Amino acid sequence: MKKNLGPLPAVCPMPVLMIGTYDENGKVDVMNAAWGQICDTDKIYISLSDDHKTVLNFLKTKAFTVGLADVDHLSEADWFGTVSGNDTEDKFERTGMHAVESEFVKAPVIEEFPLTMECELIRVLETDGVYAVMGKIVNVKAEESILNAEGKVDITKANLTLFDQFGNAYYRIGDKLANAWEVWAEKFG
Ligand SMILES: Cc1cc2nc3c(=O)[nH]c(=O)nc-3n(C[C@H](O)[C@H](O)[C@H](O)COP(=O)(O)O)c2cc1C
């Protein structure tokens, strides 16, 4: 028996994205965004309220970074999603984290996050006070420790987090089940 729950954002889990920006004076801000996903293979889409400091920043710089939060930095990630750079001047500094400017875009790469996309702002669509923001991924920076022998990202090494919007909770990525485009053969091959 199924129940109707009404219109909900029911894609689950969501990512824990760390959006890094500079303001007009080069001050770093980072916010937490779970409402984001990949478009095509080289673009990222994120749904953002228009009053965030992050949004005011990247509308000026036309750039942002997107780090993936790992388990070791979960408290920092949650802080970035709770406090705003609009009213907490030292939001980033209070975490003790470190930022370096991207070589590719005018936005900070947060050193402690293991995987970061460096993005140019390419489109902002307004939908009822929420922006649908699209960035072009011009580079991805990864800690060497999360790469496998072929130089590809191995998510089991990155210790990444996920967000459950039904329960407002964070999870770690669990066990690998099978290879995609192959497991079908166990039943239908
Ligand atoms: C788990 C989590 C997920 C969030 N996801 C989003 C999101 O997808 N879009 C959004 O606009 N705000 C989201 N927020 C809220 C912002 O991160 C929060 O308002 C933050 O303080 C904005 O920071 P800023 O004003 O310094 O940019 C999320 C917060 C948390 C804790």
Characteristics:
single chain; 189 residues; mainly beta; Pnp Oxidase, Chain A; seven-stranded antiparallel β-sheet; three-stranded antiparallel β-sheet; 38% strand; binds flavin mononucleotide
Overall geometry = globular
Which H/E pattern describes the elements?
Answer: EEEEEHEHEEEEHEEH
Most strands sheet: 7 strands, antiparallel
**Strand percentage, roughly?**
35-45%
- List ligands, each type once: flavin mononucleotide
Cα Rg: 18 Å
Quaternary organisation: single chain
Low-confidence stretches: none
Structural write-up:
By secondary structure, the protein is mainly β. It has a single domain, classed as Roll (Pnp Oxidase, Chain A), CATH 2.30.110.10. Helix content is 13%, strand content 38%. The protein has helices at 53-61, 74-80, 155-158, 184-188; strands spanning 14-15, 17-22, 28-33, 36-39, 43-49, 63-68, 99-101, 108-110, 115-127, 130-142, 161-164, 169-172. A seven-stranded antiparallel beta sheet has the order 3-2-6-9-10-5-4. Residues 29, 31-35, 47-49, 52-54, 78, 81-86, 91, 163 line the site of flavin mononucleotide (FMN).
SSE map:
Elements: E1 14-15, E2 17-22, E3 28-33, E4 36-39, E5 43-49, H1 53-61, E6 63-68, H2 74-80, E7 99-101, E8 108-110, E9 115-127, E10 130-142, H3 155-158, E11 161-164, E12 169-172, H4 184-188
This protein binds flavin mononucleotide.
